[in-house]
Design a protein that fits this description.
Distance between the termini: 32 Å
Helix content: 25-40%
Number of helices: 14
Structural class: alpha+beta
Number of strands: 15
Radius of gyration: 21 Å
Strand order of the largest sheet: 2-3-1-4
Length: 379
C-alpha cells in the first residue's frame, strides 16, 4: 500500500513481486538473508492486488509480540541478544528481523533488490556511526581537495575525485582528520547517499557512474533528494507505530515549541536509526541518542532560547546540556517531559499539543539493473 490508508492487520513483512513458487521463494529469501533459522516463525502467503501477483513473507504475530511488543523495535537487539556494534552479522539480523515484522510491507520486485536494500541499510548505519561533524546552522564546509563550491548550485566534487571518497572525507574524521560544518539535514543526505552509492558501485556500476558524473555538475538536495533517492512509509493519516524503526531509517524529530522552532536549525532534528535503540549524534558520535535522550534534548531547546546582538533567535547549547543533565535526575519531571514529547508530531505550522515523533520513515529506493526506480535527473 502507499502512504495513505489503513495498514492491514498484523505484520506485513516483506513482499516480493517476482512471479515464483511460494515455497521456493520463502526458502530463497531466508537463505539469501542468512535467516534459515527463522523458518519456524515465518509465514509465507501469496495473493493478487492491483499491482499483480505477490508473495508475502513475515514473522508470525506471536513472534512479533515476543520480540517487539506493539512493534517497538527499540529493544529488539536485546531480546535477540545481538551485538550490532561489533558484529556485522548481528546488525544484518536486526535489519532482517525488523523488516520481517514490518506493519507496512517492504515491497521488492526481486530477491536481488531485497538483498541490496539490506546491504544499503547496513552501509548507512556503518557510515552514520563514523560520521562526526561541526554543527552550524548557516555555514558549510567541505574538504577542499575533494569539493568546490558553485554559486547557486552548492558543493560539487572536483574532477577525478571519487564520489565515495568525497562523501567519506566530508563526514568521517578518521578519513579526513578534520570536522566540517553541516546542518543535520544535509548530513543525513550525505550519509544516506554514501550508503546508496556504495551499493551502486557493487551492484549497478553504470548507475553509479551516472551518479558520479551528476555530482560533478550539481548536487541533489532537500526535497529533490527525497524524491529521487528515498521511499517513505507512513503518513499523518496512517502513522507507523511510534517506536517502530529499522536500522538505516531516516526520521525527523520535530520541535513542538513554536518559539524555539523559530531559531534557525532548531525546527527539529534529522537522524539515522542505528539499531540497538540508538539514533545518530553527528556532533558527538560516541554519544548516540536513545529515544528519551533525543526527546529530552529537544524539549529543553525552549528553555535555552535567547536573542543575539542582532536580534536573531538562538539556542544556547551549553545551557541545553545543563538542563538535560538536571532533568535526568528528576524522575517524575522526566516522566512528564517524555509523556509530552513521545507523541506524534502535528503538521508543519501547527503548534498545539503534539509531540516530536514523526509518523513516517525514509529509506532507499530500488537500485538493481532492470528494476531500479532511482531515476537521476539530467545534469
Amino acid at each position: 500500500m502507499g502512504k495513505s490508508g489503513t495498514p492491514p492487520a498484523g505484520p506485513q513483512g516483506i513482499m516480493i513481486r517476482a512471479p515464483a513458487d511460494q515455497g521456493q521463494t520463502l526458502a530463497a529469501v531466508l537463505t539469501r538473508l542468512d535467516a534459515q533459522d527463522l523458518a519456524h516463525c515465518v509465514l509465507s502467503t501469496e495473493g493478487e492486488d492491483d499491482a499483480g501477483h505477490f508473495i508475502r513473507i513475515s514473522l508470525n504475530a506471536e513472534q512479533v509480540d515476543a520480540w517487539a511488543p506493539g512493534y517497538d523495535t527499540l529493544g529488539l537487539d536485546r531480546r535477540l541478544q545481538l551485538d550490532t556494534g561489533d558484529k556485522p552479522a548481528d546488525l544484518t539480523r536486526e535489519i532482517v528481523a525488523a523488516m520481517l515484522m514490518g506493519p507496512v510491507a517492504f515491497e521488492f520486485p526481486s530477491l536481488d533488490e531485497l538483498a541490496s536494500a539490506v546491504r544499503i541499510r547496513h552501509n548507512i548505519v556503518r557510515a552514520a556511526r563514523k560520521t562526526s561533524l561541526s554543527f552550524h546552522t548557516s555555514q558549510a564546509e567541505r574538504p577542499q581537495d575533494c569539493w568546490t563550491y558553485k554559486e547557486d548550485i552548492g558543493f560539487v566534487i572536483r574532477p577525478g575525485v571519487s564520489l565515495l571518497t568525497a562523501l567519506a572525507k566530508a563526514t568521517q574524521p578518521e578519513v579526513s582528520g578534520a570536522l566540517y560544518s553541516f546542518s543535520c539535514y544535509r548530513a543525513t543526505e550525505y550519509v544516506m547517499l554514501l550508503g546508496i552509492a556504495e551499493e551502486l558501485a557493487h551492484c549497478n556500476p553504470a548507475l553509479y557512474a551516472q551518479l558520479q558524473a551528476l555530482w560533478g555538475a550539481r548536487p541533489i538536495m532537500s526535497g529533490q533528494f527525497h524524491d529521487v533517492f528515498l521511499r517513505e512509509q507512513g503518513s499523518m493519516q496512517a502513522p507507523l507505530p511510534p517506536h517502530y524503526f529499522v536500522p538505516g531509517d531516516r526520521t525527523w524529530f520535530r520541535n513542538p515549541d513554536e518559539a524555539s522552532a523559530e531559531a534557525s536549525g532548531y525546527e527539529g532534528s534529522w537522524v539515522i536509526y542505528l539499531g540497538g535503540g540508538l539514533f545518530s549524534n553527528f556532533w558527538k558520535r560516541q554519544q548516540p541518542y536513545t529515544l528519551a535522550d533525543k526527546c529530552l534534548e529537544i524539549y529543553q531547546w525552549r528553555n535555552a532560547l535567547y536573542r543575539d546582538a542582532e536580534g536573531h533567535e538562538r539556542v544556547d547549547e551549553a545551557k541545553v546540556a545543563t538542563l538535560v543533565a538536571a532533568a535526568q535526575q528528576d524522575a517524575s519531571g522526566l516522566a512528564h517531559i517524555l509523556a509530552l514529547m513521545q507523541r506524534y508530531r502535528e503538521p508543519r505550522g501547527v503548534y498545539h499539543d503534539g509531540g516530536c515523533l514523526d509518523t513516517t520513515r525514509e529509506f532507499a529506493r530500488w537500485v538493481c539493473p532492470g528494476t531500479s526506480d532511482l531515476v537521476l535527473p539530467l545534469e
